[in-house]
Design brief:
Helices cover about 5% and strands about 35% of the residues. With about 350 residues, it is mainly beta. It has a single domain, classed as Distorted Sandwich (Beta-galactosidase, Chain A, domain 5). A nine-stranded antiparallel β-sheet has the order 10-11-12-13-29-25-24-17-22. The radius of gyration is 19 Å and the shape is globular. Its cofactor is Ca(2+). Monomer.
Length: about 350
């Protein structure tokens, strides 16, 4: 039986290495080469397992049942209203007070010819867990390919109609964890539209707005700092970026969602997904009070989270993608982080 502190490692032929633990399937490290072949850990985190278990439990973790926010923690399904935990006032976030990030997942090796190595993570969430309807059975595959791709494959089934939105919450700094912030990273997002947030609501208000002419325009690559230091009202609300972007050309197939590049090391990362959105978050809540890797404080904008997902508050927005899962259906979600 898997324990919270159990450490699992995936490695490929290029010395790319992923480490994660049993609690939350939490990704604790991702070592990848730079343009010169030098290997560096590019995932923000803590120096050791003890610190990881005591620290920010969202760092690198699997989030659910519903990743991101649900306004006032309420939704209606088939005429019945549900009230979820309010753990990010005034909203519900990432499954509430006891989200999937805090659960110990059952982990076992997984054989698949596509991967150099892979693990399967499994979890059963009982009917009523986190105040959601239906027993939810979840499987997540972490697969590492010899093309330096981390593939995360999610599936879930339910015994009653419910809502599901799963994601991974790793923060990336392509210079290396503990080497400063990501202001100088170049970001490109395959999105002509995004979902603005309301300061009063604390999340999306249902609007789908064009990025053109705003600080959220990453159609052409630009530095993250250019947006984070702008006077755009959307940036000011969250002191950076914490927004859902609408993937252009979404059709349920795997699409390029974003590209991230560090000019210093030459490292690049591409994100692909079959989901309709990607939440880009610059980690504005980091305040240097916690010590991370290399013994350095985890500072504001230390890393970038790129969470492929259904839109925030989709259950309450008729114009947003459907997040309902019914018995006999299978929730499927693939995310690929490809390092170049």
């Amino acid at each position: 039986m898997t324990k919270a502190s159990d450490v699992f490692t995936l490695k490929n032929a290029n010395n790319v290495e992923l480490t994660f633990i049993g609690r939350g399937g939490q990704i604790t490290g991702m070592k990848v080469p730079d343009a010169k072949g030098e290997i560096t850990d590019v995932v923000i985190g803590y120096p050791g397992i003890e610190e990881t278990l005591a620290g920010d439990a969202y760092l690198g973790a699997l989030c659910g049942r519903y990743a991101n926010r649900i306004v006032k923690g309420t939704f209606e399904l088939d005429g019945k209203k549900y009230q979820l935990d309010i753990n990010n006032a005034p909203n519900h976030l990432h499954g509430g007070h006891d989200g999937f990030n805090s659960r110990v997942w059952e982990v076992e090796p997984y054989a698949d010819s596509r991967y150099a190595q892979a693990y399967k993570l499994s979890l059963t969430s009982p009917d009523g867990d986190q105040k959601y309807p239906g027993e939810l059975t979840v499987s997540v595959i972490y697969g590492l390919t010899n093309d330096n791709e981390l593939v995360i494959d999610y599936t879930a089934q339910t015994t009653k109609p419910t809502i599901v939105n799963l994601t991974s919450h790793a923060y990336f700094n392509l210079k290396g964890a503990g080497t400063g912030n990501i202001e100088d990273h170049l970001l490109e997002v395959n999105a002509d539209y995004y979902t603005p947030i309301s300061a009063d609501i604390g999340t999306v208000n249902g609007e789908i707005a064009p990025v053109k002419g705003t600080a959220m325009d990453f159609v052409d690559a630009k530095t993250i700092g250019e947006t984070c230091h702008s006077n755009d009202p959307q940036v000011k609300i969250v002191d950076g970026i914490d927004h859902n972007f609408v993937i252009s050309g979404y059709d349920g197939n795997l699409k390029l969602a974003a590209r991230l590049k560090d000019p210093t090391s030459g490292r690049e990362m591409e994100v692909y997904t079959d989901q309709p959105g990607i939440q880009i978050y610059t980690g504005s809540h980091f305040d240097s009070t916690e010590i991370g890797k290399l013994g350095k404080p985890i500072q504001k904008w230390a890393g970038l989270a790129m969470e492929t997902q259904i839109f925030p508050d989709s259950p309450n927005k008729d114009n947003f993608p459907n997040a309902i899962l019914r018995p006999g259906e299978t929730y499927k979600h693939t995310c690929v982080y490809r390092f170049l």
